[in-house]
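Fold this complex.
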Amino acid sequence: MRILFIDNDGAGFADYIDIAENTNVEQFFAIKMQGRQANDYMIRVNRQPVSRDYVLQEGDRVTITPTKIEGALL
Amino acid sequence: MKETKTLIQVANTIQEALIKLKNERYLELLNQLTTFAGQLQEITAESKKMGASLVHGWFFAVDRCCNSVSRLLNDIPYCVSRIQQLTEAPRKEMPKLSLLVGELNQVKQEFGNIDFDKAENTISVVTEPITLEDVYLGPFKIQLELSRLSELYKSCIYHVIALDPNPAATDEVVTHPHVSNERLCEGDGAVAIRASLEQGRLSDFFTMVRSILNTYNPDSPYISLYDWDGEPCYDCGYVMSRENTYYCSFCDRDFCEECSTYCPSCDETMCLGCAGRCEVCEEPICSNCACSCAECGSICCESCLDEDLCPDCKKEMEKENEEQENQITTTNENKSQNQPGTDNTEIKLSS
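Structure:
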């Protein structure tokens, strides 16, 4: 099924992707953000905070934004 | 109802600015393509000249054509890279008004409130008070200038304003380790921030700016939190950064550049209070290197003493010695004149 995935980590990504049916938020994070800690990110589905066991639906909009981003002198 | 109307008006402003931004990027792409086409034409012209020169055996002219082609080729990679960047820019469809209204509502939800300033054409949110490594920095207002959204890739279109400022002691415009003159140093977030604004994802933009404000990067701040409160000079009270302090080992205090000096004899740093002064050369001198003249007791550095005497006393001593020598010489001469000389007198012996 298709969802809109917006990843604000690094250079950013925003596009529709295909995922398996019955994928929940926790599983989705583990697949897309391998090696990262969920606590370091703000996860929103359809602009709302959701529990980790929320099962993603067709057309959902998932946004993952880091809560810690390092600023730096250029 | 009124609020919804305001939201729609703001969303409309944002959409217009984003359309203008897209147009500007396409214009720039066109400019770059024109430049690139011009460069290719020049290379073609040089190539024809080279061909003609070769036919006639004009090798000097061939060399010149080679040099021109080489110069032109140097400029092409940058042009190609820039064109690629512009063509690969997100070619998403323009966000609909409803999506932008949704974004504004989400901003309100995430930050508790969102302010629209119609006169300045800005939207702002306020963060919670920020404390990094026990240094209180206060809440910050993130203010986005909607009318300048089209200048996204040319200048900074948002401000980060300290509402309860606790700036660095040595520079009042630095209100956060990564904010100077209300400009945020985006660091790792720069690309994602630009992308979110270009796609109208306002909530992501404000959230990322907040994330940067809540993160301390000790490797690259304007002023580190360690130096945030600065160090006051023990003498004059001037507040300086720790790396600009001068430590006096004699009194165990820190001083500023104006209130400190060093001993040229041993290179030791000292405050002006602990520093002595050589009475001969008037250079500063520490208590360890200070010597005194054996005659008059004046304080001098070792290099100004000669046989433990200051120049004045040395001169005096030499003068005395000279006088003594002169006296001795005169006395000797007088003695030899008064006594019968044996050198030139004939001695007549009786027969």
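Chain A has a mean pLDDT of 92.
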